[in-house]
Amino acid sequence: MPRHLPALAILSTLAAAPAFAAPNLSGTEWRLVSPQAERAPTIRFDDGRASGFSGCNRFVWTHQDGKSQVAGTRMMCAPAAMRTEQAFLALLEAGPRVETDDRATTLSLVAGDTRYTFARVGAPSSAVPVAEHSEYLTVAPFTRPCSAGAGKMDCLQVKGADGAWQHFYGGIEGFTPEPGVGYTLKVRVIPVANPPADAPNRRVVLERVVMTEKAERLD
After folding, report:
1. Could you give the 3-state DSSP secondary structure of residue 160?
2. pLDDT, average across residues 107-119
3. What is d(CA 166, CA 82) in angstroms, rounded to the nearest whole number?
4. What mean pLDDT comes out for the span 158-181?
5. Domain named DUF4377: which ranges (predicted)?
6. The Cα angle at residue 114 between residues 113 and 116, in degrees rounded to 5
7. Gap between the Cα atoms of 167 and 143, Å rounded
8. The model's pTM
9. For 191, phi and psi rounded to 5 degrees?
10. Is 33 in contact with 123 (CB distance < 8 Å)?
11. H runs (alpha helix) in the chain
12. CB 121 within 8 A of CB 166
């Protein structure tokens, strides 16, 4: 029977400065897209620490007094998930450098010949809270499978001002979509101060439905 130990077990001590020491990462969350994994690791950066899902367990990556430590819960999972986790934690243990694109929509952790690439989760944010504002979202008529933390789920597909479709993790308050119907919504984005490590840093609240359009699934 799998054993879940709630206490954190220290896995390693890193000599190199951690990736979360890089500027403009605080308050951002990322999900692994390459290499692909059935249970994709996630990582969220906060001041002086990072945390997330490592493929089977939760982990915390801290930096204090010039030292970095990776700690995690210890639960047994399926062999594939354990291999994903071991490889990801080995990357963190190697003290990877961080690389981001100009728009801060992708992030790579690189150590030697190993590169893990992550996609940004949710709306862009920075260490300086984004002011509360309204914006328009296009919502696709059908959800798509996505990974969230320790399990799979179906995510809304939304498109904002940047014109790129993306998974929408979480819900839009006051909005209950009907399958097979596409929407254009006006929403209110409300920043959340000091959210928990695994929680969104903003609330998205429906202001009004601008337009609806029925569609048929072709695939």
Report:
1. coil
2. 88
3. 28
4. 84
5. 138-210
6. 145
7. 9
8. 0.49
9. -60, 145
10. no
11. 79-93
12. no
pLDDT in tens, 170-203: 789 999 999 999 999 999 988 877 666 556 678 8
Q: In terms of domains, do 110 and 138 share one?
A: no
Q: Which residues pair with 209 in a beta bridge?
A: 185
Q: Is the residue at 115 inside a domain?
A: yes
Residue 15, both tokens: 């000599």
Residue with tokens 């008529």: 141
CA angle 39, 140, 153 (to 5 degrees): 25
In sequence order, the β-bridge partners of residue 14 are 68
DSSP 84: H
- CA 157 to mean position of chain CA atoms: 15
User: CA-CA distance, 212 to 104, in Å (whole number)?
Assistant: 32
Q: What are the pLDDT digits (tens) for 62-90?
A: 766 656 678 888 888 888 888 999 999 88
* CA–CA separation, 110 and 108 (whole Å): 6
More confident residue, 115 or 165: 115
Residue 157 carries which side chain, given as an amino acid letter?
Answer: Q
- 167 and 80 housed in the same domain: no
Q: Let me know: does 142 contact 179? Beta carbons within 8 Å.
A: yes
The dihedrals phi and psi of 216, each to the nearest 5 degrees, come to -110, 140
**Nearest of 44, 77, 75 to residue 61 by alpha carbon:** 44
What is the Cα–Cα distance from 144 to 125, expressed in whole angstroms?
24
Give residue 91's Cα distance to chain centre.
Answer: 18
> How distant, in Å, are the alpha carbons of 13, 51, 123, 133, 206 from that of 18?
11, 12, 24, 33, 38
Task: For residue 126, tell me if it sits in a domain.
Answer: no
